[in-house]
Amino acid sequence: MTASHHAPQSRALRPTEPGMLPAPCDPAHVESIIRSHERCAALGLTRVDRGDHTPLIRTDLNLARERALRLHLHAAPVMELLLEQTMATQSMVLLTDTHGTVLHTVGHDGFLQRASKVALAPGANWSEASKGTNAIGTTLMNEAPTVVHGEEHFMQANGFLTCSAAPIFDPRGNILGVLDVTGDHRSYHMHTMGLVKMSARMIENHWLADDFHHALRLHFHSRPEFIGTLMEGIVAVGRDGRFLGANRSALDQLGMSCSALRMNTLGVLFGTTLGAVVDHFRSPMATPMPLQLTDGRRLHMRAVFNWPTWHAVGSLNVVDNDAPTAANVPQPASTGSFFGAASGARPATASDAATASASLSGLRYLQTGDAQMEAVIAKVRRVLNRDISVLVLGETGTGKELLARAIHQDSNRSRHPFVAVNCASIPESLIESELFGYEEGAFTGARRKGGVGKIVQAHGGTLFLDEIGDMPLPLQARLLRVLQERQVTPLGSSKSVPVDVAVVSATHRNLRDMISAQTFREDLYYRLNGLVVRVPALRERSDLMVIVHKILRAEANGLPPELTGDVINLLQDCHWPGNIRQLANVLRTATVMAAGEAFITREHLSDDFLEDVLRQRGERVAVPSVPQVQAADEAAPVAAEASPPATTLEAMEIETIRRAVDEAGGNISVASKRLGISRNTIYRKLRWRQGIA
Ligand SMILES: Nc1ncnc2c1ncn2[C@@H]1O[C@H](COP(=O)(O)OP(=O)(O)OP(=O)(O)O)[C@@H](O)[C@H]1O
């Protein structure tokens, strides 16, 4: 039987009580029901099926409830309130988890009894796969509020129901579960859906306030009287000015996804600073603060924060905002400013924000003018949402993970998790359980209740396998099986769990060489390399200064200091073995050192960085604070001559790392911070060096 035989017939969609039924003529609603029926038919369900009524066994239900305990705590009072509002309609309120398993119900005894006959009870599963088209399952599929009324239900046995459901999201955009009101179809009320949506928002707002009670929370709307209502947008902001999370109304008002928002700062998006916000709300009588978005729209905003924690931010920025500008401070000799006119420190303006608005979304954020990078992004865009695995190659710190995140963010999986696994940093003995999960008691030391593996955590979203070249051979075979069969069997379990993940992997290694050396499986390589892209090293890129600008804006929270010509030359002469990660570290330190000053000068740069660049230039190193350099100076008049100069970039990189480790007294963590590269990279590089020594 074809899908169209199962599509709802016009009889099912025709209103029998005009004005009282869920917008049957709304084309989007009809389309959504038809699509759902087609999915059910494709799953092999028929309209005369009664659905799987087997509830979870008690221990599994308890486990599911325990996992969703926090959701229930937030939802329980709202469910009671919702029941009160729908009292007249003989209905029940249900809460389900992300699989559609009913966790809790409240309702009228009479209706609860009838409902239990069609398995509307805790432990039952109401995903589409289990019960066909229904508000819970279809909401989970569409991640959008859905009404399913009477015969719109795929299974005729459920035709006596009318159900209105809305998804519940956390402030990072992950779906937590579904809230649903179900009743007898004869008691349908057109306002039920609105009540369910509002209730879901109440739960989301409680969750956000709970998650971010230490953060600064901004409540906003274009109309000041809407602040404090369920229509208000709420965003949480960290002490670095970055957005941490948001409610749905905020995302709707700002017109962006949660992940796009989280790549932004207060300065870029709202054109203000943490200090300005904290100072504005210093007074208990403060009126809402006016804001202007990058597209010129005006908003009104109130801030909620814990005063003892945040007051220092306010006073700090008062000093910052009053800091001398280029107009009243003599410019350093040989000043050349990358940022154009010598404007000095200045508040972010709407036009700054407008310039930045072009870079809000995932892949667009990475487009900063380098031709090689543009080619990478163009290729990646072509395979977005095509179920093609992407393999990202490139040196450490070039932005491989950032590219993977951007691919996820721009894909239609962006509302699902992005889960990163670093195969080099997890001890070999733990990779297996981390990736595949394990059953209770699967191995000595396993947690009592077992653990969900990263692959299952990424279900619906993207799995990022970083440093895939470091994955041990036996696990490569298991991973290949998972990718082929699209199911995972946790350690110690005989049951497989179906998974749907997009895979992006990355490595700095040459996998082809590894295949020749039989340390990487060829079949896995071909599974991972649907599209291979290479992220260029920073020294090969033509957009160094655009990236510098971008990082400075982010670091300075909208008030970037300028760079002297000397500093620009130093940045351009560096070979950047740690790539953008190292650059970001150098700029972060310089921004802190230059706090309150209009220009970053050579004095604000770290000695390590200066020493490296000067050595690379072959200039005399005049950094007195490093003992090794002094010793070398004693031995020879020019420091650069103290040891034979490294001849290749690779050798220079190793030399730089070795010196940093020596200078940190062998402390790899300190050296990795100074260099801006990961500890693993240091281990790897030095191990490699010993290998060839
Ligand atoms: N285009 C960019 N603009 C701004 N910051 C960037 C850019 N690319 C990378 N970064 C920053 O550089 C740092 C390193 O990036 P990322 O972790 O993605 O690199 P990587 O290649 O995956 O590194 P590794 O190989 O060590 O895992 C991060 O802090 C990231 O935010």
TrEMBL record:
TM segment ranges: none
Entry keyword set: ATP-binding, DNA-binding, Nucleotide-binding, Transcription, Transcription regulation
GO MF: ATP binding; sequence-specific DNA binding
Entry-linked InterPro entries: AAA+_ATPase (IPR003593), AAA_lid_NorR (IPR058031), GAF (IPR003018), GAF-like_dom_sf (IPR029016), Homeodomain-like_sf (IPR009057), HTH_Fis (IPR002197), P-loop_NTPase (IPR027417), Sigma_54_int (IPR002078)
GO terms, biological process: regulation of DNA-templated transcription
Gene3D superfamilies assigned: 1.10.8.60, 3.30.450.40, Homeodomain-like, P-loop containing nucleotide triphosphate hydrolases
Domain of life: Bacteria
Entry-linked SUPFAM superfamilies: GAF domain-like, Homeodomain-like, P-loop containing nucleoside triphosphate hydrolases
Name this protein carries in UniProt: Sigma-54-dependent Fis family transcriptional regulator
Pfam families associated with the record: AAA_lid_14, GAF, HTH_8, Sigma54_activat
Chain positions covered by the region annotation Disordered: 1-23
Residue ranges occupied by any Sigma-54 factor interaction domain in the UniProt entry: 366-592
Native source organism of the sequence: Piscinibacter terrae
